[in-house]
Amino acid sequence: MGCRKAAGSVAVCAVVVIAGCGGPAPLGAVERGGSARALSVAVADPDPSDPPTITEIPVVVGDEVTAALDAGPALPAADELDAQVEVVPDVLAATPPTVSALADGTPMELDTLDAEDRAAGPTVESDTTFQTVAVTWPSDAQVAPELQARVRGQDGEWSRWFPLEDDGAAPDPGSPDALRETRAGTDAIHVGDASAVQVATVGPADESLSVDGVSLTLIGSQAPTAGLHASAQSAVHRPGGPSVVSDIASGPIVRQAAARPAFVTRAQWGAAAPTCALDSAPALRGAVVHHTAGGNSYSTQAQAMQQIRNDQAYHMGTRGWCDLGYNFVVDKWGTLYEGRAGSMDSAVVGVHASGFNTGFVGVSFLGNYDTVGLPAAALETAGRVIGWRLGAYGVNPNGTGTFTISVAGTKLPIGSQVSLPLVMGHKDVSSTACPGRYVYPSAGQAGTNLMPSIRAIAAANLGPALNPPPVGALDVVTQVAHGSVIVAGWAFDDDAATIPIHVYVDGAIAVGTTTGRERPDITAIFGKPGAGYSVTIPVSDGTREVCAYAINVPAGANALLGCKTVAVLSNLQPTGVLDAVTAAQGSISAVGWAFDEDTQESIPLHLYVDGKIAAGVTTGGARPDVEAATGRAGAGFSFDVAASIGTHNACVYAINVPAGLNVLLGCRTVTLANAQPFGFLDVVSASGGTITAAGWAIDHDAASIPVHVYVDGAIVGQVTTGAARPDVEAAFGRADAGYTMSFRAAPGARQVCVYAINVPTGLNTHLGCMSVRV
């Protein structure tokens, strides 16, 4: 879509569209978030006799502007904007939406300024009737335009100016809608049958229109004459005075039978087929309440359906989405309409609240409830359908949840955590007035808060629970041979002893297997024997995404067990685990297992201590656990190297055979404490003026240690351990721990004391004292 921009001006485009869809998208894609089957939604070819028509008319802020507005009401400021005067259309024969005749491409300039520098354009005449007005702009724009519009009805009267505000809706990243060329935009404002429109900025032109590529969209269709009836039972309400909820009921709500709500099918309201295979979440987590922000003046169900068809045409033909963004629509008489295809039976992902589309059902009131009160029948229907859908997934409508924001929106910053009710208003997650002050007023705003009533009605009308999906995990995705990857994990379903497991590689199914392998850990935790699965699949070289799904038995939502990325190499890298690194007195030990599928022989391993190679070993140790899991015997290894006192970082690498990248199995930090010497002074004897002291001493930090001898408090010498002591060797494993020292001493009574000296430093150990007469 292109827009022309006059020299020195800001470009806007006026676009008139009809409901129309591109070619069909293929079905059969994996449902995002947990199911391995696509939602069954037929995608029809467009009718070649009624192709979509989009006409673009540039609208620019001109270089030269006049100082006064054209005839008509003065432009209101932003805080003065009110809902438009609506024109009730005649009831016509049913036809698809049609295009307004603005086809000559003449630029429409916003060329008239008022005293506040707000710019207005000329009247744009359409030679066909339209009922819906909206504005769109590029989805990557940093700011939204601030525009207002007014329309001329069939009676020739102009409405008041009404705002065209950002609707805060965008597809979830990665969804089928997001993969298309989409645009940001306003709500689709229903204005009744109109033949002309005028557009203006809300504030000064250079501030209100600071983004290029803005388009004005007009949509026209005709209403059917025949009344339609909701499925299951009649849900058609005749025009009249629906009772409006003015405050929240204070009494208890009596729980009703949770019957499936009556609804108007898509075929009955004339929906166009989706243009792609729609996504379905594995479960619903909550609901978001909206209003369409269009007019409330529709007086028949036929006119209500006309609004919904126009909204769908806007969402598909202008915004670029696959289908109507809302899952359900409720009119003012309480009639329920199925919106996005499949929403009555599946957790279909809509486009209604940025970041809160997947897992949240979007229910929208048809009309603008920022200006009028909500009828009681509409309140009841909204609560009932929310209860029906959330009950199927065990969600408490009165509950709250904590959410981490991962999608950019207009209110909540990415990365923030917020606590929200599970049944929330659109304004909880987006900077919008939706669903209007008479459903959910902002803090300090006049209005009626009906959200507690919606939750209470939903809680009283919970739908029957669906067959819950299986549970489990994808534990391992590892290359085990050239062109082969092993996929293993566990899963169970309370409805069956074993269940199917489907494995996908890069989005395409690769193999099916079943649970049945013993997983004692899972049995101990869940009491489910035979929950394990393991399958080896052929995979070509390259980086591959492998996903495993547990298939629901007998039917229902499947469970995504997980996805892992694996690099499949022609030369396989070793695999293994460093189980433990321990510090003993004077040494570091490391144990684990490793093997390389390129060889059936043992492989080398290198131990690095503090960044320097300390030892090399090969596998060969018995590891029955590894053999049972992988079929590889003799995969164990162990290191034992000398180390000094202090903290050390020990890392083990498995060496690739015959060549290639080596694999770091792991690193550990260990600390060797300074060991205290210990020992004994066995004997002190005197003969002919010579004293002899003997005993033994050990310090695990050294092979031999000094021993100091004191007589009457003064040192007389030292000796080093090294004498054979078979008795000490038998007890402590140190053969040469003995010491003997002889020295001259003056006659008389003497006290002899002996100390073992700490190596390398630290507290010395007193081995004992004895008295002797020389």
Automatic annotation (TrEMBL):
GO terms for biological process: peptidoglycan catabolic process. Pfam families: Amidase_2. Residues 261-408 form the Peptidoglycan recognition protein family domain. SUPFAM superfamilies: N-acetylmuramoyl-L-alanine amidase-like. PROSITE patterns: PROKAR_LIPOPROTEIN. The lineage of its organism: Bacteria, Bacillati, Actinomycetota, Actinomycetes, Micrococcales. This is Uncharacterized protein with LGFP repeats. Residues 275-436 form the N-acetylmuramoyl-L-alanine amidase domain. InterPro entries: Amidase/PGRP_sf, Amidase_domain, PGRP, PGRP_domain_met/bac. GO terms for molecular function: N-acetylmuramoyl-L-alanine amidase activity; zinc ion binding. Belongs to the N-acetylmuramoyl-L-alanine amidase 2 family. It comes from Xylanimonas ulmi.
